[in-house]
Amino acid sequence: MKQPTIADVAKIAGVSKTTMSRFLNQDYDHMSQKTKEKITQVVKELNYHPNRHAQSLKSKVTREIGVQIADISNTYASELLKGIGNILRDNNYQMLITDSANSLELERQQLESLIRQQVDGIILQPVSRNASDYQFIKDANIPLVLVDRQVNQLLWPTVTSDNYKITKELGRLMVERKYQRVITITNPVHETSTRELRYQAIKEVSSANQLIDELVELTPNLDLKDYLRNSLATSKLKTVLFTTNSMVLSQVLATLMELKIKFPQDIGICSYDGWNWTQLIGNGITTIDQDPIKIGSTSAQIIIDALNDPDSYPDLKKHIITAHLITKDSL
């Protein structure tokens, strides 16, 4: 016979899953004695035993969710936090926000601090690609949701933008516009799954359509100005620049302006993740518009559902949020 779930017990007891979760957490502050006795009776009748995660929940919830951001200076982060905050606020939870500045060591310290503060759950934009670097959160039996970036094993619910499919669509637009060479400019690709998927899409479209594909990774040793000047001066091919996020795009635009290179007259340009300001440059820049607010709200709802119904966690899914291609005159 199938073991009853928290939802089954809540339904028979005539209470919500939130009330049932509070009962399991021994949070009786706003629970009548009658409700408490009714749930106790149903639990006994059904011989209900919470799963290992539910059993390990601490006796007193803090109603605080830790949110670990990889780089809070990025515009993406503020939109992500807005989406998370909207859902947590509606459910009477607060955020504890930390910024790892893309440092794995700092990230570990901050996550351990959140665990010591007994947060009820963690939403993480991971710095590392290795799932093993986050095993300690799993060992602490704290619900975890990954946002924006993936790790190499699907051990936790993960919410990301559509990085691969929509970038392929942009690649096909380059082909339609008769470009012969595409230069992808990005921070080091191997560091995050988002960059890797975006570049993979461009590389595959280039290979399938005989476009020359060049990868330029921004490192301290690279002089972007010299690279673009020399690269464009030595090639007669119709060329398009693709940047993997808006921060790289702003750097590239500043360099093109300094070199007096015009788009789309001298070169095409497009980007993943451009924000509203890109539509104010010339006649606008072709960008992929992702939805970090929805990514944030989706991740927060997963955490809330896990806390209300521990039997449902972890639901090991990749939740891919749709992104949209905004076509302008820069291509």
Brief digest:
With 331 residues, the protein is of the alpha/beta class.
Structure characterization notes:
Keywords: DNA-binding, Transcription, Transcription regulation. This is Ribose operon repressor. It comes from Lentilactobacillus senioris DSM 24302 = JCM 17472. InterPro entries: HTH_LacI, Lambda_DNA-bd_dom_sf, Peripla_BP_I, SBP_2_dom. The protein is of the alpha/beta class. It has 3 domains: 44 residues, no CATH class; 127 residues, Response regulator (Rossmann fold), CATH 3.40.50; 125 residues, Response regulator (Rossmann fold, 3-Layer(aba) Sandwich), CATH 3.40.50. Helices cover 42% and strands 17% of the residues. Helix 1 packs across helix 3. The termini are far apart. The relative contact order is 0.14. About 2% of the residues have low confidence.
The total number of structural domains is: 3
Count of individual beta strands:
12
Instruction: Specify the number of helices.
Output: 12
Strand-residue fraction?
15-25%
Q: Would you tell me the overall average pLDDT? A: 91
What is the CATH topology assignment of the largest domain?
Rossmann fold
Assembly type of the chains comes to single chain
Helix content: 40-55%
CATH superfamily membership of the largest domain, which one? Response regulator
Keywords: DNA-binding, Transcription, Transcription regulation
Domain HTH lacI-type: 4-59
Protein name: Ribose operon repressor
InterPro entries: HTH_LacI (IPR000843), Lambda_DNA-bd_dom_sf (IPR010982), Peripla_BP_I (IPR028082), SBP_2_dom (IPR025997)
